[in-house]
Amino acid sequence: MNINTMCVIGAGTMGVGIAQVTVQAGMRVCLLDATEAAVAKGRHLLNTNLSGGIKRGKLTEERAATLQASIEWSLDYEVLRQVDWVIEAVFEDLAVKREVLGKAAALVPEGVPVATNTSTFVVKDLAAFFGRGEHFIGMHFFNPAPAMKLVEVVPTQETLPEVTAAAIELCERMGKTPKIAPDIPGFVVDRAYAALAAAAIEVWTLGGNAEAIDSSIEMGLGHRMGPLRTADLVGLDIMLAVQRSLYEQTGHPRFQVQPEFADMVESGKLGRKSGEGFYRYDE
After folding, report:
1. How many CB atoms lie within 10 A of CB 17?
2. Of 116, 121, 166, 106, nearest to 9 (Cα)?
3. 17 near 146, Cβ under 8 Å?
4. What structural domains does the chain harbor?
């Protein structure tokens, strides 16, 4: 399958990160969102990502400028008529994904695959919104997408083998390590991590110190980063959405959201990106 042009729907944290790794892999990419404000925020996120790459010595200023100029930004879904691959990366909200995938179904040419970056929803259910299950697949990137190597590739029973093979090849072209995951809520990583994070958050609500919780799990289980620090890195709003989604889909008490955690997120403490979460970040 010849993939040279991609559209990423959703100019948030994940969409911008996926677009960055796509253009770094030498493909043309368009970032599509619904409002000028979303696009402006996406441009700022990209600038932040590229500036960070320059500071860490991963990118030169010239390379960063080239990457920035290579990404097209659009508010018009008509761009979907001219691409070889689509990745949906909007917020983890079922109603939003239903609307976006419905719009995409009317414009994406027959035979062009659409992937969802969902972290929790069953891919088969999202494929029903698009209507062409044989050309629909899950490609779950991790945050921050430019740095994290793993991509969970999630075919459904309807996904054509050649689409799965193309998704794997696309991940490798981006410098990622694809792993096939089962089409269940949360797949592998988020299902396992959400359970651990929920337990750590419960200990925190019962009076545990965040640093002590993290360092104990790091030392006791051999983890490189504790679950609360990881949640701060991922974004506590995203973590809250993941927990709520998994609880709604499975009904399992291990995913039940602690009220104190929800209150913290709703107060604007989102982790690293807001400067405060379980930890404070002074940058």
Report:
1. 24
2. 116
3. yes
4. 5-180 (3.40.50.720), 189-274 (1.10.1040.10)
Q: Which of 243, 276, 235 minimizes the C-alpha distance to 259?
A: 243
List pLDDT tens digits, range 27-76. 999 999 999 999 999 999 999 889 988 988 888 899 889 888 889 999 99
SS3 236: helix
Give residues with Cβ within 8 angstroms of 103, minimum separation 6: 77
Q: How far is CA 23 from CA 6, 26, 67, 113, in A?
A: 9, 5, 7, 18
Q: Where are the alpha helices (DSSP H) in the chain?
A: 13-24, 36-55, 61-70, 94-107, 123-130, 161-173, 189-205, 210-221, 227-234, 236-250, 259-266
Render the burial of 191-201: b for 16+ CB within 10 Å, e for the rest: bebbbbbbebb
Cβ 137 vs Cβ 164: under 8 Å: yes
Read off the pTM: 0.91
Q: How many CB atoms lie within 10 A of CB 2?
A: 6
Instruction: Answer yes or no: are the C-beta atoms of 211 and 218 closer than 8 Å.
Output: no
CA distance 212 to 135: 47
CB 176 within 8 A of CB 150: yes
